[in-house]
Amino acid sequence: PRARGPWGVHVRVEMSAVVVKSAAAAVAAGAAAAAAALFVFRRHKKKTQKSTGSRSAAAAAADEPRGASVLEVYATRPLDDDPDVSPPCLKLLAFLKLAGVPYAYVPYKTHLMRGAPKRKVPFVRGGPHLEKPLGDSQFIVEAFQARGIGSDLDAWLTDEQRAIATAFRVMLEESVYWSLLAVRWIDETQFERHTVPLLFGNINPPVLRRFVARGVRAKCVKVLDDQGYGRHAPDELVHLMRTQLGALETYLGGSSPPSPPAASAASSSSSSASSSDKPFFFGDRPCTLDCVVYAFTTSLVQGPWVDHPVAAAARSFDKLMAHQARLKALLAFDVPPP
Fold first, then answer.
1. Cα–Cα distances in Å, from 222 out to 79, 216, 231?
2. b/e for 102-135, b at 16 or more Cβ within 10 A?
3. Counting Cβ atoms within 10 Å, is residue 271 exposed (0-12), middle (13-18) or buried (19+)?
4. Residue 258 has what pLDDT?
């Protein structure tokens, strides 16, 4: 035992040294790769800033003759024939369009979140009524209504209708929103096939694109996990989506698929008969709630994520889909190039 003891210790020490050296080499290689990617990213960012400036060409051109008289909306990016890929940004753009407030659209690739008062989009600045930038779509809407900027889409609502609108809005923004995020960021297939090309496709070289996309995804996954929705299985997300969108469908006068057996079918058919011609949530003209619902249904059923079961669940609600198409036609956005 005495002869084998030092030998064994010696071998273990030598092996430990080899392991430590190998680990150190791996860490150094990883750090070098990260540093190289960061260097390329910073060069790409500087080139983007030089080529595009701190604001979009359209916004700068609009500002030249009138100073700060044009409202600037800082958002993400257009998606096909929709003006933005983000539900809160799309909600704000729809609200401004219906309220008759002119604005200049500034995409993320131009502003890179510089000057965002809440470090998120959307945010606005400029215009004749704003002394400083405003962030968060709901705070922006409320500020515009309080200051009389544009038409007040909710001035004609009763107190009961306002309460219903608030409940539905919070359901969409604080629950449906997280299901949508889980589809785009947690689902590996959706992330690789759709999210990366759409949101990071302009970053080159590809190794940098993957590095940046994976970094952003890690943050989103952590936020979703902390919030709780990131811990739901895909079928659970679909169940939540059906329940929540079903409430909107019922209020519009439709029935919620899937329907439980006969009793609820009778009640839903009577509800549908009484309000089936309701074009918007509270009658024959849209309010802010219609903008919110339009933003979320559009984000769910259009764009590259449409093959996900959550999107299929959303498409099963006929009244909601008719509402989305009606708002889309009414808004008739002039979509800027991505």
1. 26, 10, 10
2. ebbbbbbebbeeeebeeeebbbbbbbeebeebbb
3. middle
4. 53
Q: What share of the chain is helix, strand, coil (3-state, %, to 5)?
A: 65, 5, 30
Residues pairing with 125 in the sheet: 72
Quote the DSSP letter at residue 75. Answer: -
Q: For residues 110 and 52, is the Cβ–Cβ distance under 8 A?
A: yes
To 10 degrees, the CA torsion angle through 215, 221, 222, 226? 160
Distance (Å, rounded) from C-alpha 93 to C-alpha 73? 8
Sheet containing 103-106: which strands, arranged edge to edge? 103-106, 71-74, 123-126, 134-135
Residues 6+ apart with CB under 8 A from 82: 90, 298, 302, 303, 328, 333, 335
> Around Cβ 330, how many Cβ atoms within 10 Å?
15
pLDDT at 328 over 50: yes
The owner of tokens 């889980």 is 182
Stronger pLDDT, 46 or 324, i.e. the higher one:
324
Residue 163 DSSP SS3: helix
pTM: 0.75
Angle between helices 137-147 and 87-99 (to 10 degrees): 20
The DSSP string of 204-260 is SSHHHHHHHHHHHHHHHHHHHHHHSGGGS-HHHHHHHHHHHHHHHHHHHT---SSPP
- Paired tokens of 93: 């753009």
pLDDT digits (tens, 9 = 90+) for 201-245: 888 999 999 999 999 999 999 999 999 999 999 999 999 999 999
pLDDT band at 338 (very low <50, low <70, confident <90, very high): low
Q: Are 111 and 55 in contact (CB under 8 A)?
A: yes
Mean pLDDT within 237-254: 94
Closest to 247 (Cα-Cα) out of 306, 179, 293, 311: 293
Q: Report the distance separating Cα 194 and Cα 275, nearest Å.
A: 38
Adjacent-strand bridge partners of 124: 73, 134
pLDDT at position 278, please?
84
